[in-house]
Amino acid sequence: MSETLNADELLKLSLQIKQWGEELGFNAVGITDTDLSEAESRLQQWLASDCHGEMDYMARHGSKRSRPAELEPGTVRVISVRMDYLPEPMQDLQQLLEDPQKAFISRYALGRDYHKLLRNRLKKLQQKIQHSIPDSNNRLYVDSAPVLEKPLAEKAGLGWIGKHTNLINKRSGSWFFLGEIYTSIPLPIDQPAEDHCGRCQACLEICPTRAITAPYQLDARRCISYLTIELKGAIPEPFRAAMGNRIYGCDDCQQVCPWNRFAQVTGEQDFLARHHLDTSGLISLFDWDEATYLQKTEGSAIRRIGYQRWQRNLAVALGNAPTSDAVAEALLRRLEQASPMVKEHILWALDRQRNQPATA
């Protein structure tokens, strides 16, 4: 049936899909074809430079990541959706980041795991499309398969890939999640978004570890998000001081982006902070035992790093905190029972505490 739809019927269906998406809570829906040849070339160069670090999954699956029809045979279009998640005004983020005794967690991870919410909404959109065109093939993805979501979203008109390699929308900034539906329906495609970064270098200049090595080029091995989330072993010493109080991810490049002045606080309650993770002190989080960690991170994206990396990250942040007896005592309380990896970071933190000038 999808093959017999004329141009007017396909246009009407595409408009209907966008309306359904809006009704389901998506902030934008765009449609593109499956040609990702330019993105494929950039990905191959990035992998060849080993900029993906330990993220071996980025190199798996051959060309399926950049050729949608190889991942899902019959795919001719990709429906890309956006859902905004900013949980609080941006000035609140900056105040927290500037308090070295508080823990900074990337804002996408403060609430419920976005994968579940997006997948549930996207499933409803998929079902509506399937019901409308029963013989069509429609498969949804939310970080669940090798998909180049940012290049697809850029081609679908949802935004452009900025110099920090995140997607930016000129009306909404960059605080949003993406999801996709691969479809066999030859829907009309949207115009790709244009780049509006101009001469701005703010994200390159703000990056604490200089992970943005050039405009549109990110060395993940230097990125605090990679170091605190993806890296399984010890954090390289040269990057520890630059991590500051960031214990899960880093939002600096988004916070400084001029386009985020247009970002609005989300209306999705599930994206709002849980368990006071938006304002918690480093010592109180470091004092969690593993059972508390598992209980407090249930249903959260934070759960994926596990308790050992959680403690590793907090130990580094405590090493960067102002010198105090309370910090030293918190580190010493965990030292004896710590795993070898965590112990290495606690000892580094204690050394930092001893050698930093005392605060008034």
Topology:
Layout: H1 7-23, E1 28-32, H2 37-48, H3 68-71, E2 77-84, H4 90-97, E3 104-105, H5 114-132, E4 138-141, H6 149-155, E5 160-161, E6 167-168, E7 176-183, H7 202-206, E8 212-214, E9 217-218, H8 224-230, H9 237-243, E10 246-248, H10 252-255, H11 282-286, H12 290-296, H13 306-320, H14 325-335, H15 340-355
Parallel strand pairs: 3-10
Antiparallel strand pairs: 1-2, 2-7, 4-7, 5-6, 8-9
Helix pairs in contact: 13-15, 14-15
Report the average pLDDT across residues: 95
Please describe the biggest sheet, giving its number of strands, its sense, and whether it closes into a barrel: 4 strands, antiparallel
* Shape assignment: elongated
C-alpha-based Rg, rounded:
22 Å
Seen as an oligomer or otherwise, the chain set is single chain
The number of helical segments is 15
Portion of residues in beta strands equals 5-15%
Distance between the termini: 75 Å
InterPro entries: 4Fe4S_Fe-S-bd, 4Fe4S_Fe_S_CS, QueG, QueG_DUF1730
Subcellular location: Cytoplasm
Enzyme class: oxidoreductase
Binding site for tRNA: 232
Could you name the key traits of this structure?
360 residues; alpha+beta; 4-stranded antiparallel beta sheet; two-stranded parallel ribbon; 15 helices; elongated
